[in-house]
Amino acid sequence: MGNEGPTGNGRRVALLGAAHIHIRDYLGVLRERPDAHLSAVYDPDDGRARRLAYDTGARAAADPGDALDGADLVLICSRTADHAGLIEAARPTGLPLYVEKPLGRDAPETRALAARLAGHPLATGFFLRLHPGVRRLRALLAGGALGALSGVHARYAHDGAVRGWFTGEQSWMLDRAQAGPGGFGDDGIHLMDLLPWLIPGAARLTTLGAAIGSNAVPETDDHGTALLTTDAGLPVTVSAGWATAPAGLRLTVTGATGTAVLDGGRLTLSPADGPARVEHDGPPPTPALALHAFLDAPHDGETGDAAARLVAAAELVDAAYLIAWPR
């Protein structure tokens, strides 16, 4: 039997759905953790479930209930269209859930699913807030290192559409009926979650304009930029998608007394009155951060704010699409 890692160690993780592009990131996390292992795999595509079970040493389950039997934690990494059914199967167990973002295919579906998960321990694949470089940038902004802010420019993107990532088993991500938004929404939702937390006093953002298009995948969008503002009038731009190189996160924050740039994992502060200095230098953010955080959480009944974050970010994404593509 194929086996990418040990089984039988620590908490048992049931995987419901394995179609998402980040599944390999998450399997890598489970391979390296001594305190958790993949116990069972269910996917609507039985062949996919059996292949993953063979690769990992987990059990291929006949249905969600079979996968959940004996589990301690639940990971939902399916097509977005399958979230509702899989959440409904897992919710009665009361087990902590990690559901890959987005929760729903649009903001109304996200709100409905979040309401069904009220009071349920929930985490999701929003990982940018967890990166130490991002946290250092937030601390600098909170401490006034740049003075009065004049602009925030955020980009999170890759060139997967150009490289052919969304073919074969990943082609569902080009189908709005299965995935919801395309490249701008898929990557941009990370920034829509990050920015209200990152910018001092910006608990609420408003979308003013957006341009969203496609270069490499005619079935859906693969790039876009939105203009948002804080209640105080600070301009914020969000660029995201699947057709931009080089890939990665880039945050530029400008202010009266300096500029800060986070490029991948390197944060540089350029004050007006002195030389630039590196405030953080390390690996760039990756999806694995979010699953590690979920596995590190105490799961003592605290439900956290994941549902509210998923709804707020989905509403900002929807607003951008409605401006760019009026119905």
TrEMBL record:
Residue spans crossing the bilayer: none
Keywords noted in UniProt: Oxidoreductase
SUPFAM superfamilies reported for this sequence: Glyceraldehyde-3-phosphate dehydrogenase-like, C-terminal domain, NAD(P)-binding Rossmann-fold domains
Gfo/Idh/MocA-like oxidoreductase N-terminal domain boundaries: 12-117
GO molecular function: nucleotide binding; oxidoreductase activity
Pfam families: GFO_IDH_MocA, GFO_IDH_MocA_C3
Record carries keyword GTP-binding: no
Start and end residues of each GFO/IDH/MocA-like oxidoreductase domain: 134-260
Xref: InterPro entries: Gfo/Idh/MocA-like_OxRdtase_N (IPR000683), Gfo/Idh/MocA_oxidrdct_glycsds (IPR050463), GFO_IDH_MocA-like_dom (IPR055170), NAD(P)-bd_dom_sf (IPR036291)
Protein name per the record: Gfo/Idh/MocA family oxidoreductase
Organism: Bailinhaonella thermotolerans
Species classification: Bacteria, Bacillati, Actinomycetota, Actinomycetes, Streptosporangiales
